[in-house]
Amino acid sequence: MSTPWHQKGAAEVAAALRTDLTAGLTEAECRRRLEEYGPNQLEGAPRVPWWRILLAQFQDFMVVVLLMATAISYGMGETADAITIVVIVVLNAVLGFVQEYRAERSLEALKELAAPTARVIRDGREVTVSARDLVPGDLLLVDPGDRIPADARLVEAPGLEVEESALTGESLPVRKSASWVGDPDVPLGDRRNMLYMGTTVTRGRGRALVVATGMQTEMGRIAHLIQEVGEEETPLQRRLAQLGRWLVAGCLIVCAIVVAAGLLREERLTGPVISQLFMAGVSLAVAAIPEGLPAIVTVSLALGVQRMIRRNAIVRRLQSVETLGCATVICSDKTGTLTKNEMMVRAAWVGGRSYTVTGDGYRPSGEFLREGRPVSPQQEPDLAQALKSAALCSNAKLVQAQPARRGRGDGAAGGRSGRSHRPGMGQVVFSVQGDPTEGALVVAAQKGGYRPAVLQDRYRRVLEVPFESERRRMSVITEDGDGGYLLHVKGAPDVILELSTHMLRDGRIVPLTDQDRQAILDENLRMADQALRVLAVAYRPLSFPAGEGPDQLAELSTDEAAARLERNLVFLGLLGMIDPPRPEVKQAVAAARRAGIRTVMITGDHPATALAVARELGIVGAEGRAVTGRELDQLSHSELIAAVEECQVFARVSPQHKLQIVRALKELGEVVAMTGDGVNDAPAVKEADIGIAMGRTGTDVTKEASAMILADDNYATIVAAVEEGRGIYDNIRKFIRYLLSCNTGEVLTMFLAAVMRLPLPLLPIQILFVNLVTDGLPAIALGIDPPEPDVMRRPPRRPDEGVFARRLGIKILGRGTLIGLGTLTAFLIAFFTLPGTPGVAPLDDPAVLNPARTMALATLVCAQLIHVFDCRSERRAIWETPLSSNPWLVAAVASSVTALLLAIYWPPLAAIFETAPLQAWQWLVVLLLASAGELLVAIRRLILFGRPVRLRAHVEEEA
Q1: One Pfam family, short name please (predicted)?
Q2: Are 341 and 335 in contact (CB under 8 A)?
């Protein structure tokens, strides 16, 4: 195996690539290498053509059977039946096609992360070329704001810092060093001598040798991972496919029995007899299959999606809505998901005193607490000077923008690079321009009452000695209105302490003793143990000899100016910063735990930082530990499975590690929701049972790989989405129970009539009317029932739970039997009591058959509409579920009753459906028979449980 590029020195890399470190490659050599290595672009898998996506919508087992029934109906002259079924099937296919056609564009978005142009040295001259034409060995030049166009090994890196959070998940810009050489297994985020495609330069400049282009880059590896992740059926899709197979199998068996019995019973198989038998079979098929079920599921999911949008969760794939309800693990990136991706000063140690700083990200409001009591920094001279010097020694700016608007986010491909505080509606938005660490210092100073603009007017900057990674510090000279000069320095604590000879205590400059130095080092260690990023601040008054001043110092090199200035400093204190957790996340994690859902943090950040945030959020306890990517590489498969089962925090992991963790969790039988916002999260987000992207800070790559997008980037929204997902699954069970009870009643009616050699109690067109019109609207209304109060106090259901689990099949058969018997009884009463037409046999007499079928139709519809209210809860009785909680259901039932009355009493519809007006006594019989099922169930409950209220304790006993 060849030595990794980050393990080689610059000269060694240049020799390996046959590149001149001064003149770069020749144009001729670049053309040759472009032919050899190909263009610097990301390749995608072949796009699935639209017509294949459309055809796939008709491959569902139940849809195929419906199309077969359509063909048979059309062949027998039942054109209206055939057209009705075709319309439903096509409508459902269009809904599915629209959803799927919008998906699968991850690699297209990934390509947008590539820079359009690049500056290189070729033939000894600086030229700008298309990023597509870069080749390994090119000598690349980068400046602040540049997006890195390829992977490269640094040759020069003065003051260079690069934003890599979209690739690694780490929130802070990484300081680069051309002289640094690492071990072979150093994680991606720690390779200080490397630049990677898609990252952005925030400070300094660099010269680097391109070592990988196109699909050979780290970004290309992610593109490969995205391609490798296939699409899996959601639990709902598996359940509905299973349901379809069962329904079709049952339908075929019943039809075969009826047709076989008829063939055996008839002595002569004449044309009319065969036609009647086929009509009976088609009627049974139409009765057995709930034609509207696929469309109702789609519509219910779509309505659920609209509710989730109102709660800031944007669902891209309808079938994923329900999957949320059975999630058992939420894997979350840390930066920008659990935390704000906004650095904030959390602690200060100044003049021997410790302070806690409160607040929310970049919002410049908060308190300074000493021993738990608020203090005014302006009354604390040591703290005041530390805040002023820290702000004056920073280049970042705090920007106040317009009030936040709720929306789908900016959608920028590199969304993570924008850092801003986005509160709720109507609040002012604050963002930082510049380095986030310096932004935290500016915000802390403003919390203390020192506005940056006022400070800069009072203390005019006259010289800056810039930060460099080798020096690990930055200095500025300011001049006050009286002509005095001050030097302000910030940097690594050990460096600043080494340059200090005094410290500020109680407003006085005093010598820095060994005891003071040890106290500072101890405090620095304590802050670091809390995963705080610690900076030290110092200052000293300056006086210049006659004829010298800042202008003369500006003419010196950085090292010379630093040697003259950065000595005999007055140590001011330590400032500890952290990317703080989102305030609402702790409650969301606790709510998820109550719902039986485990939260796992997967981040590219350092283990100490990850653990500190995880402990603060309650993801792990005090004894929790983090497993690093390097440790994962050492594990066997069985050890990986064990680690994933036990550990809640994974740190310093690569995109491949994230993918492994998600796959291991799925292997354990977990239903995994994976959140993410960076490009590094995209493969794992796509692999998860439900991938969740951040809408505001998320990259387009992750959004396209996801099934759901959080419009407000709020982890708490996930918990709300889980609640909706569970409610949606409950509602799907409700309308499956409702529709199949009705279909069972229809099948039983038709089957018993065939066995009893009676004419068809219901015509196929009447059954379609029931299944699609009078049943359809109430079923859809059931789909928007609000979640029950205890939905988030139940454990997640098993992903392999069948459609008829928890006695649902028994409830369907029991109520379906009552509906079927009532419907057939209504038909028999009318058939044997109504006077017929003289000289016409009752089996062929419309004067008998039409009123009898109308009574059967009315009984069937009314029984179903009464039953729909019983389907609203599997845990509560019909009288314990208030109608006011779902007014849409009341409206749907009223609409179905209206449709029934129109089909009976409006002549044009009565002619189509072959119905006849009913008399008052017939309606009385209809209502008695329709309500008999609910009355019997109510009596049974009262006998079994004594009183209705106790029903809540007998969840599984409900009929």
Answers
A1: Cation_ATPase_C
A2: yes
| Contact between 198 and 141 (Cβ < 8 Å) | no
* Token duo for residue 634: 């050492």
Kindly report, residue by residue over 689-719, the tens digit of the pLDDT: 888 887 776 666 777 778 888 877 777 888 8
Please give the pLDDT value at position 518. Answer: 95
Q: State residue 574's pLDDT score.
A: 97
Q: Answer yes or no: pTM beyond 0.85.
A: no
Domain 233-308+725-788+803-957 is classified in which CATH homologous superfamily?
Calcium-transporting ATPase, transmembrane domain (1.20.1110.10)
Report which of 217, 247, 168 is spatially closest to residue 681, judged by C-alpha positions. 168
Q: By the 8 A CB rule, do 775 and 816 touch?
A: no
Query: Is the CATH number of domain 5-44+109-223 2.70.150.10?
Result: yes
Buried/exposed code over 933-956 (b: 16+ C-beta within 10 A; e: otherwise): bbeebbeebeeebeeeeebeeeee
Report d(CA 328, CA 218) in Å as an integer: 31
In order, the DSSP letters of 928-959 are HHHHHHHHHHHHHHHHHHSSGGGGGG-GGG--
d(CA 670, CA 649): 17
Strand 329-332 relative to strand 672-676: parallel, antiparallel, unpaired?
Answer: parallel
* Cα radius of gyration rounded to whole Å, the chain: 36
Asked whether the beta carbons of 656 and 632 are under 8 A apart, the reply is no
Domain ranges of the chain: 5-44+109-223, 233-308+725-788+803-957, 313-338+582-713, 344-396+434-578
Query: Would you state the torsion angle of the CA atoms of residues 526, 529, 535, 536, taken in this order, to the nearest 10 degrees?
Result: 20
Asked if 402 contacts 708 with a C-beta cutoff of 8 angstroms, the reply is no
The total number of residues written for the chain in this structure:
959
Q: Answer left, alpha or beta for residue 449, where phi above 0 means left and psi between -120 and 50 means alpha.
A: left
Q: Which residue has the higher pLDDT, 181 or 420?
A: 181
Beta strand segments in 643-795, E: 649-651, 672-676, 690-694, 708-710
Q: How far apart are CA 916 and CA 827, in angstroms?
A: 13
Choosing among 3.30.230.10, 3.40.50.1000, 3.30.1300.30, 3.30.390.50, the CATH entry for 313-338+582-713 is: 3.40.50.1000
Q: How far is CA 704 from CA 51, 911, 936, in A?
A: 21, 52, 52
Element (H, E) at 914: none
Nearest 5°: the CA angle 266, 270, 276 is 75
Alpha-carbon dihedral sign for residues 837, 838, 843, 844: negative
514 among known catalytic residues: no
Q: Is 403 exposed, middle or buried (0-12, 13-18, 19+ CB in 10 A)?
A: exposed
Q: Which of 81, 146, 151, 333 is catalytic?
A: 333
Q: What HEC string does 167-192 produce?
A: HHCCCCCEECCCCCCCCCCCCHHHCC
- The three-state secondary structure class of 626 is strand
Highest-scoring range by mean pLDDT, 418-422, 711-715, 888-892, 930-934: 888-892
Cα distance between residue 328 and residue 321, in whole Å: 15
Distance in angstroms (rounded) separating the CA atoms of residues 771 and 755? 23
d(CA 138, CA 126): 11
**Topology (CATH) of 344-396+434-578:** Calcium-transporting ATPase, cytoplasmic domain N (3.40.1110)
Measured between alpha carbons, how far is 731 from 322 in angstroms, rounded to an integer? 10
Tell me how far apart the alpha carbons of residues 853 and 750 are, in angstroms, rounded to a whole number: 12
Give me the residues paired with residue 128 across strands: 119
DSSP 352-383: TEEEEE--BTTBS---EEETTEEE-GGG-HHH
Q: Please give the Cα distance from 70 to 65 (Å, whole number).
A: 9
What pLDDT is attached to residue 494? 93
Structure tokens at 827: 């038909």
